[in-house]
Structures are given as C-alpha cells and as structure tokens.
Amino acid sequence: MSELFSKTLSCFDRHALRMLDDLVPGTVWDIGCLEEQNDVSHYLLRQDLLSPDQLQKEGLLGAKVLSPLQRDGMIRQAYRSFRPDYDFSSFAFDDQVQAGVLYQLFARKTKERDWKKWDCVYRDYPQGKGVNLKVMEDDLFYLLFVQYELSKAWKEFSRACHHGGVKVIVHVPFPQRQEAVDAWYHNPLYDGEGNIRWDGAYRVLLELLEFYEGLADGVFFDGVEILENKPETAQYLAQKAGELQLKVQMIVPDTFDRELAGRCGFRQLSKML
User: Fold this and answer.
1) Which has the higher per-residue pLDDT, 103 or 198?
2) How far lies 246's CA from each of 86, 91, 208, 218, in Å?
3) Exposed, middle or buried: residue 115 (CB in 10 Å: 0-12, 13-18, 19+)?
4) How many CA atoms lie within 13 A of 240 on its CB side?
5) Which helix or strand (DSSP H or E) is residue 156 part of?
6) CA-CA distances (angstroms) from residue 153 to 12, 63, 73, 77, 149?
7) Pairing relation of β-strands 251-252 and 267-268?
8) What distance in Å separates the CA atoms of residue 249 and residue 273, rounded to the nearest whole number?
9) What region does 23 belong to: left with phi over 0, alpha with psi -120 to 50, or beta?
C-alpha cells in the first residue's frame, strides 16, 4: 500500500517542488482540487496557482521581486511581454478552454456569476446576437495567457512528481454548480427544477476524465450520488471509459458500498493506491 499524502497546492513554485524532496518514492499525492476559484470550470486552473518564478524564468518579468499586493499587476506586465506562438494558438483553440474564459469574460461584463441571470446575448452565446468580442479582445487574450502559463506550470510540476516516483491524484467535484460554466456550456445538464439529468451527465464526466488523464495519475470525483441515483448510468459510464482505454480511475470513498461500486466499475480509493 502506498502512502497517501494530502496537500492542497498554494502555488506552482519552488516551495511546492521542495515538498517532493520530503516524499518517498511510491507516495500518492492528493493535491486537492485544481479547478478555478468559485467553481468556475473544471477545465480552468486557479489563477493564484501561477508563480512569478515561472514568469521570471521565461523572461516575461524582471528579476525584481514584487509584493503579493502587486501580483495581478505583475501578471499583466508579463502578459504585455508575451508573444503568442504555435503552442499558445493550439491551446487557445481548445473548446473547453474557450468556454471557460468566455464565461469569465461575460461574468465580469455583467457583474453576475450566475449565467442564468445574464442578458440573453451573453446567456445564449453564440446563438445570441450582439456580443462584440472585438472590444473585449485584450481581456480575452489575457485570460487565455494566464491559463496557458498555468497549464505549462502544471505539466512541469507533474513531470517533477513522476521523476521523483510520486503519483498525483486530483479531486474533481461533480456535478458542477448550475451557475458555473460547465453547466452553461453543456446546457441543459439540469431540468427546470434544478435536478441534474444523470442520463446525459455521463458524457460530461467522460470528457472530464479524458481531460484529467493528461494531468494526473488518477481522478477522485464524488461518484456516490450517481451510483445511488443512477447505477445503470454509472455502469455505462465505466463501460465507455473502458472502451476509450482511459487510464484515469473512477473512484469512490472506501466507506461506500463495495459491492455496488464494483458492479458499476468504480474503485474504492484504497484500491488505487
């Protein structure tokens, strides 16, 4: 049995990498949820994870150390020095990334995080008419830049973990809040009374599993609700994941019904370690 080490990252910086020195090979690191603050999206990493160290290393910032209060201005300064390349373009054209940054953009524009309360031009985008992205282009590219730098930082951190013989698992809460981008992008995930449509939700879960397969050795999402309410859907989800040959595991806590979890293709957390 591998040792489970739980730690939520505060930043992808040298301090996080130093923690690896204290872990023995074979350790499984549950680093907590990586998603954007306030449940914006499962496909966006939290901006506060971005380290000035990385921006300085890439030559986007000078060597002068700024105070934490100047952090946002520092990232903006790095953005002004950034020159898009092919890798950035490939990243920026990902549908899930675009949906996430558009959600952030529209939420700031309307000063409302609940997309169901947005003006119809934003709520029904791209069907809605009247959205002028040209005037928001700079803010849009800034958000894409932040996520691009975060994705590179995560990959570097993940490589360091693997080099040290440490596996990484992440917790992906699901279902997402109705107000968040994944519900907006995949609308309708919920019915008119706010109940999740589990028979369609498995498609979203499959996309999440595929996404996180490239980020971690395992994913722990709260599979209890779907197992209890729609075991046949959970079983189909496990079958489809197997057909796609996903390496990411679908995990439920050890306290959950072992027989039901096994029958539906879900693993107990300890089974993965």
Assistant:
1) 103
2) 27, 21, 11, 10
3) buried
4) 14
5) helix 137-163
6) 6, 19, 19, 18, 6
7) parallel
8) 11
9) beta
Return the SS3 of 170: strand
Residue whose pair of structure tokens reads 């549950």 in the numeric block: 30
- Over its C-alpha atoms, the chain yields an Rg (Å, rounded) of 20
Backbone angles phi, psi at 169, to 5 degrees: -120, 150
The residue behind tokens 């995949």 is: 186
Task: Extract the tokens encoding 11.
Answer: 């930043």
Whole-angstrom distance, CA of residue 232 vs CA of residue 20? 40
Q: Please answer whether residues 9 and 168 qualify as being in contact, where contact means their C-beta atoms are separated by less than 8 angstroms.
A: no
Using left for φ > 0, alpha for ψ between -120 and 50, and beta otherwise, residue 41 falls in: beta
- Which tens digits make up the pLDDT trace of 104-154? 899 888 888 788 888 888 888 877 677 888 899 999 999 999 999 998 888
Query: Is the separation of the CB atoms in 226 and 201 below 8 Å?
Result: yes
A 10 A CB-CB count for 145 gives 22
